[in-house]
Design goal:
Helix content: 40-55%
Order of helices and strands: EEEHHHHEHEHEHHHHHE
Number of helices: 11
Number of strands: 7
Structural class: alpha/beta
Oligomer: single chain
Radius of gyration: 19 Å
Length: 245
């Protein structure tokens, strides 16, 4: 008997599937590739408008909760940095990361159909694993500069985009510079541009929190390498790539 997972019409795959269940790894999934704030939701909306009856699987956050976070933490975790640490722990044991987690599931095809969409994979390791392990999957890679991603996170007001942080002082730039690893992600001019986002009505705490999310994610995933892998020069990968400016 398959171990139940708290996802609708999905289950883990220690046993052979029986009709109408099929391993997700065997289905021709369309998989979005990209880190937080690159426009995956916009791409999903466009796909839904272009294809009637499109079925979208539980997203990365839900699969992460069910397959990675819940088994490791024993319950829900909302802080984004803590989630990054737990998913890194999962990847240490499962080098395919989310691709491996998704491919470990079976789907009820009477509900999900035979060619659903998944949002999404991050980083080179996940995309390489998926491309080599699940040849029927197709990939749509999305990218955006890190400073643009901070702006998008500020604009979408998602309650999930939070980290534990003290409210910064009036020196927003100084608070940004205090983020560990920030200089490896943002240039001095980009940090200056982020610091003055207070003039657009964003609070210092929100600016710093979103910048920390982007920095933490970049420390765990290499979005540029994943994008490069999905470019046309890699003819063996069925993928298209788009980068927002």
């Amino acid at each position: 008997m398959s171990e139940p997972v708290p996802l609708p019409f999905l289950r883990s795959t220690p046993s052979l599937p029986e009709s109408p269940w099929a391993p997700l790894g065997s289905l021709p999934l369309t998989v979005l590739v990209g880190v937080t704030g690159v426009g995956k939701s916009t791409a999903l909306q466009a796909l839904q408008e272009a294809r009637s009856g499109l079925r979208i699987l539980p997203d990365r956050r839900e699969v992460t909760d069910a397959v990675m976070i819940r088994p490791l933490a024993g319950g829900p975790v909302t802080d984004r940095e803590q989630r990054f640490r737990l998913t890194a722990e999962y990847r240490a044991a499962h080098p395919g990361g989310m691709a491996q987690a998704l491919g470990s599931l079976q789907a009820d095809t009477t509900h999900w159909g035979t060619s659903p969409v998944f949002d999404g994979l991050r980083g080179l390791d996940e995309v390489q694993y998926a491309a080599s392990t699940f040849p029927s999957w197709r990939f749509v890679a999305l990218g955006a500069p890190d400073a643009v991603r901070v702006r998008r996170l500020l604009g979408r007001a998602d309650a999930f985009d939070r980290v534990q942080t003290d409210t910064p002082a009036a020196d927003v730039r100084g608070s940004l510079l205090a983020i560990p690893g920030v200089r490896a992600v943002f240039s001095p001019s980009e940090l200056g541009d982020l610091a003055v986002l207070t003039t657009e009505g964003h609070s210092p705490a929100d600016i710093v929190a979103r910048a920390r999310i982007v920095v933490s994610e970049r420390q765990n995933y290499d979005p540029q390498a994943a994008e490069a892998f999905c470019r046309p020069s890699h003819a063996h990968v069925p993928c298209c790539s788009t980068r927002w400016r």
